[in-house]
Amino acid sequence: MKQVVVHPERCVGCMQCMLACATSHSKSLSLFAATRETPQPKPRIHVGAGRFNEGFPNRCRHCDPAPCQSACLAGAIYRRANTGTVLINPDRCINCASCAMACPYGVIRFHEDPLGPAGHSIAVKCDNCSSRVANGLIPACVETCKSGALTYEEMDAAMRRKNRAVARSMSLDAASSAMPTGVALLKTVRQSELQLQTSALRSQGGDNA
Amino acid sequence: MKHVIVGNGIAGVHAAEAIRAIDENAQITMIGDETLLYSRPMISYVLDGSQSHKKLPIRSERFYEDLQIVPLLGNRASRVDVVQRHVAFADGTQVAYDRLLIATGADPRPLKAEGMHLGNIFYLRTENHVKQLVAALDDGFRHALVLGGGLVGFKAAYGLLKRGLSVTMLIGSGYPLSMQVDKTAGRMILDELLEHGLNVEVGVNVSAFEGNGTVRQAVTDAGRRLPCEIVVIGKGVIPARSIIPRRRIDVDLGVLVDGHLQTCEPGVFAAGDVAEMVDIARGVRWVNAIWPEAAAQGRVAGFNMAGRPVVYPGSLSRNVMRVFTLDVLTVGIANPPEKAPFRIVQRGGPSFGYYRRLVFKGDKLVGAVLINRIEQGGVLRSLIENRVPIRLPQEALLAPGFNFIQLLP
User: Fold this and answer.
1) What is the pLDDT of residues A2-17, one digit of tens each?
2) Are B186 and B178 in contact, with CB atoms under 8 Å apart?
3) Which residues of B are less than 8 Å from A92 in CB distance?
4) Phi-psi category of residue B315: left, alpha or beta, with phi > 0 → left and psi -120 to 50 → alpha
5) Which among B233, B258, B288 is the end of a domain?
6) Are B143 and B226 in a shared domain?
7) Does any domain span residue A194?
């Protein structure tokens, strides 16, 4: 069964996935019109700054078992059996934030949602674009990602591709690298910057050990 | 295999579901003194008026039938016989077990005072309590007195304030939630409540209630009289241990369990508010009587009962709540000893609109207090629970633009 697979090394931090996600969860389904909606649709995928200030697409992993589901006070979180998608029922959610306290990835947000009860903030997270998939489309974040950081495939297929790419990059004819050279260079530069920052902070603030 | 679960709170329910998920042939009996399967923390939301009582149930009426569980509801079990391996009721009924789960929860600590028989004096633990309390509010009472500034007292005071009552809260420490938050956060929370009309008195104890049928005033140790028409007592909870044979099963504050949630008696397990086990942040045995712990412990206890030896790493205190314009999230130790290996970093405060306090023990996070911007608090909780060594500079975690993603491995 296909699922959204994240390849964080390919993320360039463009945040188009966030726009596509919000748009696909709007009433108008158009980016231009969605920016004018009230309440404004918000993304369920969050591109944050990773350790080297590179982009990192942070989305719900639809964990099994799901800590959010276990912690939910109102019994509002459930799993759709056929896809394994973990969903929040907007009509049962009481906005208590117990799910956010349980989520080890910090992917849940609280706001009024265009497709939820009017005038009430509720817990919102990735729903695996269930309606799009049901209509034969792929998840919006994957459709829009240009760098290949988000793909929609069977996990086996994704692992096979990555194994092959790593193997090739280690072969005698190492002309191909496991990730685009531009991205690799960017990460090296950022990592050096971070190491410089860290040692500066350490020499100011004393040892934390 | 005969599984008997004493208690039908979330620990018992999750245990039953875990057993049934592994073993479709197991016999499961659930004993509970309450007949409804509901979310206990949600009663605070019923009290403050934001949720209807009808939303309390968290399983369908067909729960027992669908999972082929035999329900024995409406009465408390009276004792457990670990030699004969049965649970006995006062009327002599016995239920035999191969595996037993004690998930009896905790009861409100009773207040020692005169006049407790008067009407409109409430504890706040069950859906029945909140039903009676809300009914009393409908009678038009205006002045409420809340005893205790812990989780229950706090939520009672907040709920009554939201309902428009005039509320006086009597607390022991200088600020409410003193077990969960530090002085700075406590001050911010207290100020928020004071701004919304709460009256607070520190260090005042009530020794008696007076009234004519229903309560009219409380009498303090010093002899002062505080007028009140509704009283809510939130002075903590005590694990419900009365059925446990103390000479056979070790009990401290709660029932002592190991890493598999098993008591010292083989085949007898405990989970939820009644259980006592290692606290991950504190490093010592503790009772963390909170919903997410009961939910997680029940599930693991169920797996162990059904023969799958899942390890539970220990409990962890945590709470999240919305208090008017503040969101508060707490995990682990808020007030450590102020010496090595503990180290505290903090940022923000009363005039900043947010607050962050992180407590480190060596290179590991053992506590966090967050006011506002709490959405990613779960990342911090996960770091504490998994005892992850933090390799970034500790102060870096507090920078306003800091993205918690940098902590993910």
Assistant:
1) 999 999 888 889 999 9
2) yes
3) 55
4) beta
5) B233
6) yes
7) no
